[in-house]
Amino acid sequence: SFSGFHYDAPESLPSSLHGEFDSSFAGMEHGGLFLYDTVQPGKRRLTRTSVTRTLVGDPGSTYKYLGLRLFSHPWVDVTENGDAISKKCTKEGSTLRKLGYSSKTTSALM
Predict the structure, then answer these.
(1) Is 39 helix (H, G, I), strand (E, B) or coil?
(2) Could you write out the DSSP letters of every residue in 64-81?
(3) Of 60, 75, 71, 65, whose CA–CA distance to 27 is shortest?
(4) Taking a C-beta distance cutoff of 8 angstroms, is the pair 54, 35 a contact?
């Protein structure tokens, strides 16, 4: 158990909120955004971990875990250089679809 960790059962949340999160996670999973980590304990053979993870956030944000730098999947539209685009400048999700994200995954990210 983790100190300070709190779990809310799905039925304790408003059904609309739970539905939005459930749909978003399903879209990210469908898009293949959750990946297994590979670690090298004791500098021996490579081993795949039993859990998957992903990082979603502002363009260019990163997270370092076990010496591995993860780059975020953007939760906003981006330019060719990876800079965020204002929602007023483009149809929401259009640049993410150009980058190869499916419509379902784009909806999950945004």
Answers:
(1) strand
(2) EETTEEEEPEESS-B-TT
(3) 75
(4) yes
24 C-beta neighbours (distance < 10 Å), count? 17
Q: Residue 47 and residue 42: Cα distance in Å, rounded? A: 11
**47 contact partners, CB below 8 Å, separation of at least 6:** 38, 39, 40, 41
CA 45/CA 43 separation, integer angstroms: 7
**Cα gap 28→82, rounded to integer Å:** 20
Q: Which long-range contacts (CB under 8 A, 24 or more apart) does 61-67 make?
A: 65/37, 66/37, 66/39
| pTM across the whole model | 0.65
Tokens representing 68 are 């591995």
Q: How confident is the model over 43-86, as pLDDT tens digits?
A: 778 888 888 888 888 888 888 876 778 888 888 777 777 777 76
Structure tokens at 7: 């779990």
Amino acid at 42: G
